[in-house]
Amino acid sequence: MCLALPGSLPVINARAVEFVIKTGLALNCTIGEFNIFARKNYFYPDLPKGYQISQYEYPLCLKGWLEIESNGNPMPLRIGVTRVHLEEDTAKLTHVDGASLVDFNRAGVPLMEIVSEPDMRSVDEVKAYASKLHTLLRYIGVSSGDMEKGAVRFEANISIRPAGSSELFTRTEIKNLNSFRALVRATEYEIARQIRVVESGGQVVQETLGWDDLRGETYSQRSKEHAHDYRYFPEPDLLPLEISRDEVERIRATLPELPDAKRDRFLAQHELSRYDATVLTADRAVADYYEACVNQQSVIRNPKSIANWMTGELFRLMNETGVSIEQVKVKPGDLVALIELVNNGKVNQNTAKLVFADIFTTGEPPATIIERKGLAQVSDADELAAIVERVLDENPKQMGEYLGGKEQLFKWLLGQVMRATQGQANPQVAAEVLKAAVEKRR
Fold it and tell me: Are 281 and 266 in contact (CB under 8 A)?
């Protein structure tokens, strides 16, 4: 019904209803058995028919919560979720030089709205809530989370109050914030603006605001209506929607392991630090990749080394190249094999990093790259002995000073051995061979 063409009628999108219920369950909501779509009347250029199909008194999901962790708060903070409901999206407006450009491409598309309780008391908590919610929506597969394409948009309702008071002043709403950065900046600006208004003796006006990212300030779009201004009444073109408990349980069974539960399991099962467990479970695909590595039978006893390689080298290369975890060419089995080559002394840590970068680019197995480039670690004592003797012959002065008491020169001599082997010598074996050779010449 995006263009309000005569004779066009709305239809309830069953898949969208399922996604809203799925989200409500992930947010600990009660799922309503009896749901009514409402007609929300308002006249604004993004709705040519003069009303929006939404939900008001009988939404799909009610009274849930989401726990967050924010800076300076050691205990999880529970943010209440008022409702999760289904409505239709509006057109996209772009305001240019006193005119409004209207893009109807998304008008009429099913839109899920999640309304939170006013439980956030700082910008840190706002950001933590938005980030946690974004992660959850992607985990359960109801949104791509692509904020540049408008898949998730935030609308911040902000009000202030005197310190020590529970009475909130008039609120304003900032519409269509499409990045975490915009959400944080707009919230910070609006809090400061409202404080200036009140401290100068004025009153905050209830209104809907836009955010100008270039100027870094909010601007008024329209006065904020109250519920009675919208003249809600049941949508006459849609029948009431009844959701059976069997259907709710069927949808519940499709929920994956949620981020908090996965993090806690990683802590207990893999003995990771809380930081590692949180980072590795922030993205479901990353968590799946990690578990695919850990489930390789040969390294199940050392999951920490896998976490170190992922949060170190893998994330670094992903950030540098803009590659997502789904696009990474390093197979879980190849990462595991490389770690085992390090543990078995076949390559040292520095060489392994070079090999990993090659795997990341080519997708070749580590053994193939090591053989092709001749990167195998030298651990044979007899082979290293000949190299050590040559290093000592070429550096008699440093050897003599070491024997004379300058013990710090041992590291320098060892460095020369590593250089002569192009970094492929096993450092531990090389140190033992060097020490024995020097002592022979004492």
Answer: yes
Q: Show the tokens assigned to 167.
A: 């009475």
CA dist 256 and 25 (Å) reads 11
Mark out the alpha helices in 253-408 (DSSP H runs).
259-270, 274-281, 284-294, 303-309, 315-321, 332-343, 349-362, 366-373, 381-394, 396-403
Q: For the whole model, what pTM was predicted?
A: 0.80
pLDDT in tens, 9-67: 999 999 999 999 999 999 999 999 999 999 998 777 888 888 999 998 999 999 999 99
Domain boundaries, the chain: 14-252, 259-373, 381-440
Kindly provide the residue ranges of all beta strands, DSSP E only, lying in 109-255, ordered along the sequence. Answer: 110-116, 154-158, 172-177, 207-212, 217-223, 233-234, 241-242
Strand order in 233-234's β-sheet?
A: 51-55, 37-41, 233-234
Position of tokens 């069974």?
253
Give residue 234's identity as a one-letter amino acid code.
P
375 φ/ψ angles, rounded to the nearest 5 degrees: -100, 5
Residues 141-152 have pLDDT tens digits of 999 888 888 889
For the segment 338-351, what is each residue's pLDDT rounded down to a tens digit?
998 888 777 888 88
Name which of 53, 115, 56 is nearest 90 in CA terms: 53
* Residue 336 confidence (pLDDT) above 80: yes
- Report the alpha-carbon distance of residue 107 to residue 98 in Å, rounded: 23
Q: How far is CA 308 from CA 273, 277, 302, 311, 336, in A?
A: 11, 11, 11, 5, 12
Continuous segment of H or E residues that includes residue 41: strand 37-41
Residue 336 · residue 298 · CB < 8 Å: yes
pLDDT digits over 175-198, tens only? Answer: 889 899 999 999 999 999 999 999
Report whether 92 contacts 102 (CB < 8 A): yes
CATH architecture of 381-440: Orthogonal Bundle (1.10)
φ, ψ for residue 404, nearest 5 deg: -85, 0
